[in-house]
């Protein structure tokens, strides 16, 4: 997050910075939106496994197994 500038992000996405600012307002807002999207899509099964694990150890094991795939 800290290592990526807005100009690097817009170049990687192939868009102009006004478009990014109009859509998200700031780099922080973009980051929050991206992490929220991930946690509700690709990461949903990971969060569910963490919530359902009976112990902290099992939660960590599930997290590591699911993120390593």
Helix content: over 70%
Distance between the ends: 23 Å
Strand content: under 5%
Biggest sheet overview: none
The pLDDT mean sits at 91
Features:
about 70 residues, mainly alpha, 5 helices
Describe the structure.
This protein has 69 residues and is mostly helical. The chain has one domain. It has 5 helices and no strands. The chain is elongated. The model has no long low-confidence stretch (mean pLDDT 91).
Give a brief rundown of this model.
The chain is 75% helix and 0% strand.
Task: Give a topology summary.
Layout: H1 6-13, H2 17-24, H3 27-40, H4 44-52, H5 56-68
